[in-house]
Amino acid sequence: MASLDELREERLKELSILKESGVSPYPASSARDTEVKKAIGSFDALQKKDIGLTLAGRLRSIRKQGALIFFNFDDGTGVFQGLMKRDEVG
Predict the structure, then answer these.
(1) Is there a contact between 55 and 34 (Cβ–Cβ < 8 Å)?
(2) Can you give the pLDDT at residue 90?
(3) Predicted confidence (pLDDT) at residue 63 exceeds the cutoff of 80
(4) Cβ atoms within 10 Å of 38's Cβ, excluding its own
(5) Which residue, 44, 79, 37, is CA-closest to 58?
(6) Across-strand partners of 64?
(7) Separation between Cα atoms, residue 45 and residue 50, nearest integer Å
(8) Dihedral Cα 88, 11, 37, 65, nearest 10 deg
(9) What are the DSSP E strand ranges found in the chain?
């Protein structure tokens, strides 16, 4: 298990990467258009319509498995597990 100093150093490194890429790590507003609870409740209908949604919340955990990354996302109304593929995300 990583020490507190190692965790802090890693978070500061990630913070500087965000800032260097022009992303505000603590934005004053967001473009969220739905909540996780509503998105999960209407998942089948949304999937058929192939609509994009904008969510805002916290990544609670990230697990890297080769070219895949699994994550848990929480916005206070619900939690879901997501998947990113290295070849589909820059």
Answers:
(1) yes
(2) 61
(3) yes
(4) 15
(5) 79
(6) 69
(7) 9
(8) 40
(9) 58-65, 68-74, 79-85
Residue among 27, 86, 17 at smallest CA distance from 54: 27
Structure tokens at 15: 């913070």
In sequence order, the 6+-apart residues with CB closer than 8 A to the CB of 79 are 36, 60, 72, 73
Distance CA 70, CA 12 (A): 22
Comparing CA positions, the residue from 30, 28, 34, 47 lying closest to residue 78 is 34
pLDDT score recorded for residue 29: 85
What three-state secondary structure class fits 45? Answer: helix
Which residues are registered as beta bridge partners of 62?
A: 71
Amino acid at 61: S
